[in-house]
TrEMBL record, chains A, B, C, D:
The lineage of its organism: Bacteria, Pseudomonadati, Pseudomonadota, Alphaproteobacteria, Acetobacterales. Its cofactor is pyridoxal 5'-phosphate. The gene is ltaE_1. Homotetramer. This is L-threonine aldolase. GO terms for molecular function: L-allo-threonine aldolase activity. One of its GO terms (biological process) is L-threonine catabolic process. The keyword Ion transport does not apply. CDD domains: TA_like. Pfam families: Beta_elim_lyase (PF01212). It is an enzyme of class 4 (lyase). The keyword Cell wall biogenesis/degradation does not apply. It comes from Acetobacter orleanensis. PANTHER family: L-THREONINE ALDOLASE-RELATED, LOW SPECIFICITY L-THREONINE ALDOLASE. Catalyzes the cleavage of L-allo-threonine and L-threonine to glycine and acetaldehyde.
């Protein structure tokens, strides 16, 4: 067995980063009003508006599944549909949450490369059928980075936004790993969202180093009407909201949000660069953010498991390594070493 | 203005108690699997089973609204109904969450004294109509303590349970302030729940001194089938579940859960005893747990507000003072003093 | 046993009136496109617009429960609420359909006299609470005539509409027995609806002499956006729509719709006038439309049952007699005679 | 323009067959209780039980979309999923009705040949994933005949049923054109349903020659618990139920149900046999029931349209001709003739 002090099966395996924890502790003083009527929530929302250079509406939900589903439900009626990649998390891993929260909005899926939608695919689905038996699309959702770690360029987002606006579709961004995308592109949050035509963003806090929580930003504020009530009815309104909000202040004000993304990306690159040249192995997708998908012979994957490594293989049978904010490069080296050792033995 | 270092508008205004915070920090070591597949969640569930002396199914949700609504949805079909007090939180303060999560289960309300249902009222609603146009009741929910602080005796719970079993109704307990009830009755959690015929309990963590989180305990395990999937679809499955679960270990193993309830109750009694004799003022409900409802002339309530005190008046126009785990008796004295001063001035 | 050739337990017990049946047969020629793209549906919609003197949007649903629930769902978000009488059919006899179709819009009920809402009651509910835990009302629904046969005067409807407009609430009218109300008031359909501020009307076809079907008229056309899709998703879009639509042409063009209402009302008056003076019996509500609610000693009601009469007693234990389009006055005389006979025997 | 006295765009274009209309008229005598408590409904249900040689539970809904969606909702929880063909009507043409009625049950689709599911495809989907993020399948739905007119053999249905039973899945049959399948296979209704392992059948009345209405038969009666209430809440309980039920008596007792299916099938065969040999044209699917899908050059299809023929082309761009109970073979000849003329001209 390898000495494993850190697994890379998911970026949800990591704990709370220091900046988030410190902020939660700082907020844990005295009493504050509940349900978001407190200075921490106000300050967190303001911090988002500053970071995004936009007077957007900011909400906090408990997790990404709820955040995505609530956002999509606010963009659609039950008889509308949402266009997404066939690999989108909202389609593959939310157990029907979008359909549940919206009371029946169908997800119309597009087979994609690396999980990325294209303007043409969107146009085809949105205009292909116009009859009464087909739920008219009303929103498009893109995951940035995608579930396989691909990053839309700003131009790609803008092109998607353009076709959305042309066809009367709202554009939602699932930013469960938003920080990783910003870190990879080296662009500002504003550049990647509203300046490129995104209407609503779900910004992942949990994968970024927090205990719990996602932020939902409405750049098009008309879409946010009643959203606080929608959250409340859906069991997503925190009473001690300060503890969901303060960690955001911690990571945003300190810049830890971005450093966390950079660190995770660096770890992925660190692994990729050590194994990319190995004969017979394949990086299934370009490593653009914090994920490495390794295609290898079953014997090698079994060998890794025997050594104690945990990883999922739900995408094409390849091993997925996902790096979190606290990725330990020495452990990445250990993983790379084990891969090379097993590879040599085959 | 009074020097106010603590408000008593809600027990949600308080922060995280030391035992919960310490446990969260202790759990913040290294990596653990996500979605509840971790040692902290397992241990927390076991701790509940030990405390409740029962091999029950344990789940964690983010807040009480979701916990209650999920539990009720698991007990009913959409065309069933739930019997509750007209003052029940699920009816008055959840913005339609039960109806949302269940896809349309109606709440059938009973006007009550101090929020307590009676076997007769349940029987009347459950048997009054049997036609196809009326949603058959399938569950009864009681809040313990009630929203106005009244506590069902064990005999009362057993009587309700008896009629529920007779009529084929499941019995749910909204235990948002469960600890306060246990503290007041001096009974065991088992006594107050499954030993008295309760099928499902939502045990409030937030009001008990945690940052976030409720536990849902199914004493009748057949009712828990698929509940994990129900939580997942409803956006109530935490990825970094350890941070929802560990605080429970902290408060349960240390006994802080009960001490927190006792402290809050003591503060309420401390206030009540100082103002109960004041002429023209009225304690609207017996002070049995951690709430004091004060009926007073508008001028007195205005006076309290001018002094800086915050309180809600949504029940019969009376001022509600709700004490949390960290209630400061000196502050309670200050409030009592202000009340007496204003009273004397009138 | 009495020779009973017609029961008066419900106006749903009657069959199809000749004008509706003839129209259905006339429409049963050859082929027409499905889903409403046919000349019968177009003509029926035009006939409504002519009758109502308004360029409204017209839809057809299969029954009143669906029509009401769909209309209310189109006026609200799931986190809104609907204000209605505590005796409203949508609250008492639809098994939670409004909550089901809307994904959780609560019905906020007002105890009423004869089922009639008042502006003050609406205002109190709509402005009493404004907090995040309370589902903001977004619609008011009135039943005309009410479930106990009371008729809102035009002035009463206008007063309700005025407060609705002031408070940003949409006004829906459940017109399951619309024809009976028009017949009683002697006013035009326009007078009773949009000219008095009603936004949406569900016009009952079934109780008016048709086999199946309700019409939904949106006088405020902005509220009708997507309603065809809403109907489709909810299983309320008829494929052979001509058979739902043509009977409307039959009853509207011939005036049978109004005559049917008048006949039913006349039968109710005919009964009421024969029994109103009987000592110890009571007409529980003024007989303004086609319903008679008789309060009588249990022995008398039992006697009527023994004679073979069927009637419901769900409102205050009184016997409800509801007259349909084909009410046979001779049979009404028989019922009156039996009542008098039993009364004399007591 | 061709002299077109009958279109073949849809079997919903046809009217009511004589047996159904006569029965409706016969039922239109006097008064009967509402909501199915009448002799016609009882008799219709008994007639089904006789025809299907099974003591099944029988319900009536207004249309196929509702019938399918209600049936599937009764087989699943919201967090379950339903396995179906990617071409299934429930997936492609119900505007999200299954998701709406079930509060979020996802449809998991399988690309198929001619719309037919296979045991292997079912097994793969039902066992491929077992994690908490994936909605466990709980039901399989097959359309018989499929949307492209293919008919499952009894052996095929049994094989599907076997894998369903093995994997704990309920088997639903969408029988919108059930009569056409029975006619084609020459088997009994029992053979094609419960004797082959089908748990629930939606038997299409509308396409079979009725004005409105579908029957839902639960062969596994345990699955029907509460279904009447489910229908009521969903706006699918007819008040004058006799008019939905009596036509079934008309077509079932007379055998017209089967003759109607045979006639429609014969018309399809009549067309197919006249055009099958034409060079460059293709029957996209074997003509097994009452549908003909013709692949032809766009110029030919345009020519048919110019001649006045209506047809949909939503499946692979081919022209769909669907024959109803009253298909006029002379008109079929006319269509065939026009096709041949246009073909010769190309």
């Amino acid at each position: 067995m390898t000495q494993i002090t850190q697994q890379f099966a998911s970026d949800n395996y990591a704990g709370i980063c220091p900046e988030a924890l410190a902020a939660m502790q700082e907020a844990n003083q005295g009493y504050v009003p509940a349900y978001g009527e407190d200075i921490w929530t106000t300050r967190a929302a303001d911090t988002f508006r500053t970071l995004f250079e936009k007077d957007c509406d900011v909400f906090f939900a408990f997790n990404g599944t709820a955040a995505n589903a609530l956002a999509l439900a606010s963009l659609c009626q039950s008889y509308n549909s949402v266009i997404c990649s066939a690999q989108a998390h909202v389609e593959t891993d939310e157990c029907g949450a979008p359909e549940f929260f919206s009371n029946g909005s169908k997800l119309l899926t597009v087979p994609t490369q690396g999980g990325k939608l294209t303007p043409d695919a969107i146009r085809a689905l949105a205009t292909g059928r116009t009859d009464i038996h087909f739920p008219k699309p009303r929103a498009v959702t893109i995951t940035q980075p995608t579930e396989t770690g691909q990053i839309y360029t700003l131009a790609e987002i803008q092109a998607i936004s353009a076709v959305c606006r042309e066809l009367g579709l709202h554009l939602h961004m699932d930013g469960a790993r938003f920080a990783n995308a910003c870190a990879a592109l080296g662009c500002s949050p504003a550049d990647m969202t509203w300046k490129s035509g995104v209407d609503v963003l779900c910004f992942g806090g949990t994968k970024n180093g927090m205990a719990v929580g996602e932020a939902i930003l409405f750049f098009d504020r008309t879409l946010a009407e009643g959203f606080d009530y929608r959250c409340k009815q859906a069991g997503q309104l925190a009473s001690k909201m300060r503890f969901l909000a303060a960690p955001w202040i911690g990571v945003l004000e300190s810049g830890a949000w971005l450093r966390n993304g950079q660190a995770a990306n660096a770890a992925a690159a660190h692994l990729a660069q050590q194994i990319t040249a190995l004969e017979g192995l394949e990086l299934m997708f370009p490593v653009e953010a914090n994920a490495v998908f390794l295609k290898a012979p079953p014997a090698l994957l079994d060998g890794l498991r025997e050594k104690g490594w945990r990883f999922y293989t739900f995408i094409g049978g390849g091993a997925r390594f996902m790096f979190a904010w606290d990725a330990d490069l020495a452990q990445v080296d250990t993983l790379a070493s084990d891969i090379k050792t097993l590879h040599a033995a085959l």
